[in-house]
Design brief:
- The complex is a heterotrimer of chains A (240), B (232) and C (127).
- Chain B is 37% helix and 27% strand.
- Chain B is built from nine helices and ten strands.
- In chain B, helix 3 runs antiparallel to helix 4.
- Chain C has two domains: 66 residues, Arc Repressor Mutant, subunit A, CATH 1.10.10.10; 50 residues, no CATH class.
- Chain C has a two-stranded antiparallel sheet.
- The relative contact order of chain C is 0.10.
- Classes of the chains: A mainly alpha (240), B alpha/beta (232), C mainly alpha (127).
- At the A-B interface, helix 1 and helix 4 of A face helix 2 and helix 3 of B.
Chain lengths: 240, 232, 127
């Protein structure tokens, strides 16, 4: 399984590296302009658009990882490796989760360095505000909430691909079926969410709690169910 | 021991039946030819055994195990299409096989890469059809698998490459393994096969030992092939 | 070695080995190559060669010593026998072919004598 994660990253390390470099360059450019009170010029716009394109392609790439297994010739390699569907999907999904956490950490670190730098250079204008434990918790929860939403979306996409290539494999229009499946899964999940998460409104009542523990559990259960059904189909029902 | 056992196997699509109630088994230590015209179900059968497609009914056992990760460790599959990722190099492919298959002999594979005239740093995208075919066979045959599934291994290969591929197949047969070669270029494999399976409309039209068939019919396998499919 | 694909390959190899023994290419008591070596030399399946060796052993043309290998028979009688068998086979094919062309026994004999005297087909042209 970890071999597979390694395999997934071997093909992408140049992409990841260029993403990090572009992000840092953009940060330096914007930050220095902000300090010098200069307006962004052509290079800044270019950097930002490259960064945007890289982000978009990362998202597309992450969505397409199961597509590659099911709709391209490489599937004949991936699906004949001695890995169960659970391990294969697990490796792909874990790789995506780790990538997202890495993005959050890198962005967080760079912004933090910016703040530290500002505080050191202009102590008279800017003080690093003291961070309380509760603030950190809230921040972590916001990030987790966004990430969980993203993971749910990804798994919905994966499940749609797998449905199109398993239960509906006899039909010719695989890609059209994928879209239909996606819409259907979205609808079903919407209903479930309404039923289960109905009492969840963001409560700022308790300190450090944005989403109550119970709701986290429900979110994880939904992600888990999506994962297990996708992996089951990938393991037993795929028809290339 | 039976390396492969197929019981009442069926594969249906909405409008047609590709594999129709197939029953057969393959023994250890033999090279089998899976022969038949296009559309006779050869590729589908091989995909079913490799586990990339699921049967509509029936059973497949590889070394008495149901198709799954355990049999994939025992089966070395060479698909017709190019299953190797485009971004890889020859060396990376060897590395990949070594990482995933315990039975992959990396040293042997490296020697064979040399033997067939490839270089480790060549990119998959830069390889010609013939070179790719040679690389695929090196990867598949450098595993010490229980069952080799070779789907049209001679497709797109020049006579020189075919010779090398044949040699590699002959070198790899051991007493405890089985090779199943699907092909429509029969002339090429006449002299290396033990047994043949003629497939027609998803059913077995004829099965037997090649020398016995030659003796009975006083014909080459290629001629028998023509006879079998003439009436179709 | 080129094979005639319409005849069992193992039989063709059996014949070739017998010929080699008769012609002296393989001498009495010579060690035969291992099944694997012979298979890769002839570019045929190991099982085919195995069948060849089985057949030859049955006909006592070769004998196997456990753990050492197979050897060409030392028995002169056997060599004589296979020589006779093979010559009969050739004659049989020849005579059958001639009969299919419509020659009777005495004509075949005559033609054969002429042929052996160095006048290939002379009488046929003259007729």
């Amino acid at each position: 399984m970890f071999n597979f994660i390694k395999f997934e990253w071997q093909r992408r390390w140049k992409f990841f590296l260029s993403g990090i470099v572009v992000f840092i360059l953009t940060n330096i450019d914007l930050y220095s302009r902000m300090l010098a009170k200069k307006p962004p010029n052509f290079i800044s716009v270019l950097l930002i658009s490259i960064l945007f394109a890289l982000c978009a392609s990362l998202v597309l790439d992450q969505m397409g990882r199961v597509y590659r297994t099911l709709f391209t010739d490489e599937g004949y390699l991936e699906l004949t490796l001695p890995l169960s569907g659970y391990k294969l999907l697990g490796a792909k999904f874990l790789a995506v989760v780790l990538e997202c956490i890495a993005v959050v950490l890198i962005v967080g670190m760079v912004l933090y360095v910016d703040l530290l730098f500002t505080a050191n250079t202009y102590p008279e204008i800017f003080h690093l505000p003291p961070l309380s434990w509760d603030d950190v918790l809230i921040l972590v929860q916001i990030i987790m909430f966004i990430l969980c939403g993203y993971f749910t979306l990804l798994l919905m996409v994966y499940l749609s691909f797998v449905l199109a290539k398993s239960i509906f494999a006899s039909f010719k229009y695989g890609k059209l079926i994928t879209v239909l499946c996606f819409l259907l899964i979205g609808k079903i999940l919407g209903v479930i969410t309404d039923l289960v998460l109905i009492n969840s409104n963001f409560s700022f009542g308790a300190p450090g709690v944005l989403v109550p523990i119970g709701d986290w559990a429900k979110i994880f259960v939904i992600i888990g169910l999506l994962f297990i059904s996708t992996a089951y189909l990938l393991d037993r029902k795929v028809n290339l | 021991m039976e390396v492969l056992k197929v019981d009442n196997l069926k594969k249906r699509y909405i409008t047609k039946t590709v594999i129709d109630d197939l029953n057969f088994s393959l023994d250890e230590g033999k090279i089998y030819g899976l022969l038949g015209p296009n559309g006779s179900g050869k590729t589908t059968l091989i995909k079913l055994i490799a586990g990339v497609t699921q049967p509509s009914a029936g059973n497949i056992l590889v070394a008495e195990r149901k198709i799954g990760p355990a049999t994939k460790q025992l089966v070395s599959y060479l698909p017709t299409i190019n299953h190797l990722p485009k971004w890889m190099t020859v060396d990376k492919c060897l590395q990949l096989y070594k990482n995933f298959y315990q039975d992959f002999d990396a040293q042997l594979a490296e020697e064979r890469v040399d033997m067939v005239g490839l270089k480790g740093n060549q990119k998959i995208t830069s390889l010609s059809t013939g070179m790719l075919g040679r690389l695929k066979i090196v990867l598949a045959m450098s595993r010490k698998a229980k069952l080799y599934l070779l789907d049209e291994p001679f497709n797109g290969l020049d006579p020189n490459s075919r010779e090398k591929v044949l040699k590699m197949i002959l070198e790899s047969i051991r007493e405890d393994c089985t090779i199943l070669i699907s092909t429509h270029i029969i002339h090429e494999v006449e002299s290396i096969l033990d047994e043949v399976l003629f497939l027609n409309n998803g059913q077995i039209a004829l099965k037997g030992n090649v020398d016995d068939l030659r003796f009975q019919k006083k014909m080459s396998i290629e001629e028998i092939y023509k006879e079998v499919y003439e009436n179709v | 070695m080129e094979f005639d694909n319409s005849r069992p390959i193992y039989l063709q190899i059996v014949e070739k080995i017998k010929k080699d023994i008769i012609s002296g290419k393989l001498e009495r008591g010579d060690k035969m190559p291992s099944v694997r070596v012979m298979a890769s030399e002839l570019k045929v399946n190991v099982n085919t060669v195995q069948r060849v060796y089985q057949q030859l052993e049955q006909e006592e043309v070769i004998f196997t010593q456990r753990g050492i290998g197979s050897f060409v028979t030392r028995d002169e009688q056997v060599v004589k026998r296979i020589k006779q068998e093979m010559s009969y086979e050739l004659l049989e094919n020849f005579v059958q072919g001639m009969k299919e062309l419509g020659f009777d026994s005495s004509q075949i004999l005559k033609l054969l004598t002429k042929y052996m005297e160095g006048e290939p087909g002379g009488s046929i042209k003259g007729r």
